[in-house]
Design brief:
mainly alpha, Serine Threonine Protein Phosphatase 5, Tetratricopeptide repeat, about 0% strand
């Protein structure tokens, strides 16, 4: 069991023992009864007020975050350095001597790891130099990846328009490579959705998906909506490439390419839900599920994190978008028990939990919203503390009187309270 899984009462008991205190001694110092301490430690009595947790922490001589099972506080607010990224995107000088591809690949890999572990402050510092190096390199793949990472981070930090610019640069760098272009399109769609341009995002996602998953698409039937209701996902070994005739031999697509197509379908589903096209959103998630069912343990060269769990998380968010919070939360409780949940990157899980907190708010469940935010903070602190969207959700939950303990602490950390 990890520290994050240990109930708070058990943490209180452990620290009491470490401080060589009996339950009666702790009770006396808190001016409470021994029975109260015993119930807290056994989990019979909930510690749902931050002021009480602070009092306990003071007596036990630990930080409140330790009792709450949190990592040491991460600085809140947008990391400094976004202007440096903006300046790097504005530079077009590619006359510098190209760096060794292996070294650039190592730097790009480091940037991806920083992003997936939600180390956004660290990533902000390295991206300007990475962009300068990648722009002078002769590797479209690494240039596309560098722009994609930049776009994804900027969207997180509330710079959606600048993120769209970086994503558009990725599209240009992809040139005639359909898979690189499709991977870049994922970032384009996410930037458009973050800018509340869901209709444009839907068009972009389906256009890109249809190019690499032609067997799933029929744009003539539904305009930009794409897929027919009677079509089913073919298995990867049945997929034909574009331009291949009926008599041409089937060309096997690598699983990583199918993952890019499946991710585009999920992005299209979320955009459709944002447009109020709920039936189409459900159809698109069903098609994505068909793709995911054929993938098992594949390498993920395009960093999509696509799979059956990703599809189920998208179903939760689609249900929340159509204001069916009850279904969203029912699905959420199920998917959290799936083995694949913990294998997703910290960034992915943290971002999803912030969205789930919004769903809890829709049904007026402040404690549920607070739990989701606290869980997100324990998994990926920067997701909660650096993103403007998360700050808005924290503020909404913190308005309750009394505010749930974990969110009261988060509100203080991100500067929403005195």
């Amino acid at each position: 069991m990890t520290n994050d899984d240990v109930p708070i009462g058990r943490r209180v008991a452990r620290w009491r023992v470490r401080r060589s205190m009996t339950q009666q001694m702790l009770a006396d110092r808190l001016r409470r009864s021994k029975s109260w301490v015993d119930k807290v430690e056994r989990g019979v009595r909930a510690l749902d007020r931050y002021s009480v947790i602070q009092e306990l922490a003071h007596v036990l001589r630990v930080d409140p975050e330790v009792l709450l099972g949190q990592q040491p506080s991460t600085s809140a607010g947008t990391p400094d350095g976004v202007d440096g990224i903006r300046a790097a995107l504005a530079r077009y000088d590619t006359s510098q001597a190209p760096q060794e591809t292996d070294e650039l690949r190592r730097q790009v890999g480091y940037a991806w790891l920083s992003y997936q572990h939600a180390h956004y402050g660290q990533l902000v510092r390295v991206l300007p130099g990475l962009l300068d190096t990648a722009q002078g390199a002769r590797s479209p793949e690494l240039l596309v990846q560098s722009y994609r990472i930049t776009s994804l981070l900027l969207v997180k930090l509330g710079e959606a328009d600048l993120g769209w610019l970086a994503a558009d640069r990725a599209m240009s760098a992809a040139s005639d490579d359909p898979i690189l272009a499709a991977a870049a399109a994922i970032s384009v769609v996410q930037a458009l959705r973050a800018s509340n341009r869901d209709r444009l995002a839907l068009t972009a996602a389906l256009t890109a998906a249809n190019r690499i998953l032609p067997a799933l698409s029929c744009p003539a039937d539904h305009g930009v909506g794409g897929l027919r209701g009677d079509q089913t996902a073919r298995q990867p070994h049945d997929q034909r490439g574009e331009g291949e005739g009926e008599g041409a031999p089937a060309r096997q697509r690598p699983p990583g390419e199918w993952a890019v197509g499946g991710t585009l379908l999920l992005q299209a589903a979320l955009a459709a839900a944002g447009c109020g096209e709920h039936r189409q959103a459900n159809e698109l998630t069903d098609r994505a599920a068909g793709v995911a069912a054929s993938l098992r343990g594949y390498d993920d060269p395009h960093r999509t994190s696509f799979g059956l769990v990703a599809v189920e998380l998208a179903r939760v968010l689609v249900a929340a978008q159509r204001s069916d919070a009850d279904e969203a939360l029912r699905r959420h409780s199920t998917v959290m028990r799936r083995e694949g949940w913990r294998r997703l990157p910290a960034e992915y899980r943290g971002a999803y939990l912030v969205d789930v907190a919004r769903a809890y708010l829709q049904v007026g469940d402040l404690r549920g919203a607070a739990r989701a935010l606290v869980d997100a903070d324990s998994i990926a602190p920067a997701e909660v503390r650096c993103r403007p969207l998360a700050r808005t959700v924290i503020a909404d939950v913190a308005r309750a009187q009394p505010a749930p303990a974990g969110v009261a602490r988060l509100a203080t950390v991100v500067g929403l309270t005195r």
